[in-house]
Amino acid sequence: MSWYLVFGLVLFVSVLVVATPLCIRGDANGSGLVNEADVVDIVGYVFGSGEGLLVCNGCILADVDGNGLVDIGDAVRLFSWIMGYGGALRPC
Ligand SMILES: [Ca+2]
User: Fold this and answer.
1) Centroid of ligand 1 to alpha carbon of 33 (angstroms)
2) Looking at the domain assignment, is residue 2 inside a domain?
3) Cα of 51 to ligand 1 centre, how many Å?
4) Residue 17 Cα, ligand 1 centroid: separation in angstroms?
5) Is residue 5 a part of any domain in this protein?
6) In a domain, 13, yes or no
7) Residue 3 included in any domain
8) Per-position DSSP letters for the chain, written without gaps between them
9) How far is the CA of 66 from the centre of ligand 1 (A)?
10) Per residue in 7-34, pLDDT tens?
């Protein structure tokens, strides 16, 4: 396999990854995982001590229930989901 072919393949895959970001509802901190840290970030945002909201392809990642608002209900919904209660999270 030539060097140019390998370089081209790596460049193609890199562009593909950049062009398709993961938009995971509930991943409030954008780490790529949904876990307790996201609950903490949502609570921090709601009570004014957190950072701004991450938006991915028009989807507010902290808006766990998808109602267009980010409030304490989103933190509760996410925590319940992490603990195994409630249904699947809505897709972005
Ligand atoms: Ca919401």
Assistant:
1) 19
2) no
3) 17
4) 28
5) no
6) no
7) no
8) --HHHHHHHHHHHHHHHHHS----TT-TT-SSS-SHHHHHHHHHHHTT-S-PPPEETTEETT-TT-SS---HHHHHHHHHHHTT-S-PPPP-
9) 5
10) 565 555 555 445 566 899 999 999 999 9
